[in-house]
Every structure is written in C-alpha cells, then in structure tokens.
Amino acid sequence: MSKAVPFIGMIVSGIVGIMFLADLAAGFPFRRVSIAADIGFIISSAILAYLSWSLQMSRQEE
Question: Could you give the 3-state DSSP secondary structure of residue 30?
Fold first, then answer.
C-alpha cells in the first residue's frame, strides 16, 4: 500500500469535517438542510481521520 494513502485520507477527512462543521455552525455551504446528516458526516470524518492516523502509525512501526 502506498504511503500517500493515509495522508490523502487525513486530508479528505479534514476537508469534509470542516465543511460540515461550517454548515452546522453557520449554515454555509449547504444551508443547514439536515442537522442529522451534518452530525453523521462529522462523525464519519472523525472515524476516517482516526483510521488514517492509525494506519500511518502502524506503517511507521514496520
């Protein structure tokens, strides 16, 4: 597996997390259509960030 995969996962999770936190807080960019979807995407981005970080740490031990 490429070393870039965990970094790409962290970047994507950061972008998604920031987008949906902004939507939840200020209604931008999706005008707060669904609060449940905002919370779900924030949780999903946190899970992706953790999995990416965990993969990066396990690859450094090898």
Answer: coil
- Closest to 40 in 3D by CA, of 55, 25, 20, 60: 20
pLDDT, tens digit, for every residue of 11-33? 999 999 999 999 999 999 999 99
- Cα–Cα distance measured from residue 28 to residue 20, given in angstroms and rounded to the nearest whole number: 8
Residue type present at position 60 = Q
Percent of the chain whose pLDDT exceeds 70: 97
Confidence of residue 59 (pLDDT cuts 50, 70, 90): confident
Nearest to 39 by CA among 14, 21, 12, 18: 21
What angle, 0 to 180 degrees and rounded to 10, lies between the N-to-C axes of helices 4-26 and 35-61?
160
Q: How far is CA 13 from CA 61, 62, in A?
A: 23, 25
